[in-house]
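Bug #77: duplicate submission created two jobs. Keeping one. Sequence:
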Amino acid sequence: MGAWDYGVFDDDTAYDALDDLKESANIVIDMEKYFNEVIKTDYVDYDKGHYALVSAAVIDSVINGTSYRCDGSYSEWIETLNEFDLTPLKQKAIQAIDSVLSHHSELNELWAENEELYTSWRNDKLGIQKRLIK
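Kept job's structure:
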C-alpha cells in the first residue's frame, strides 16, 4: 500500500493492525491485549506501538465520533462497533499512548529523528489521548 505520514493510519503497519481488529473474534479482548503489551513492557517495539495506537483511535472513533483519514470502509466498520462498550478500555488506551510517546518506544525514537514531522506526529497522538480523557 505504501502509506506514510504522521496520522495514526498513515503507515502500512497501522493498516495491518486495523485489518487484524476488523477480523478479531473478540475486539475488546484483543484491544486490551494490545494496550497491555505496551504498558507492561520496558521497551515498546514498532509493531506493538502501532497496534496500541490504532486501537486507541478506534475507541476514539466509536466513543467520540472522531473521523480519521483512512482508506477503505473505516467509517462503516466503526458503526458496527457501537454495540460494544469500549469505555472501560479508555484508561488503558490513555496509558498506552503515554508508553508509545515515551523515550522507551521505537516509534517515538524513529519519529524524533524526523525534525519536520515529529511535532505533528506527537500532537496527533496527544489529540487522541486528550479526547479519551474527557
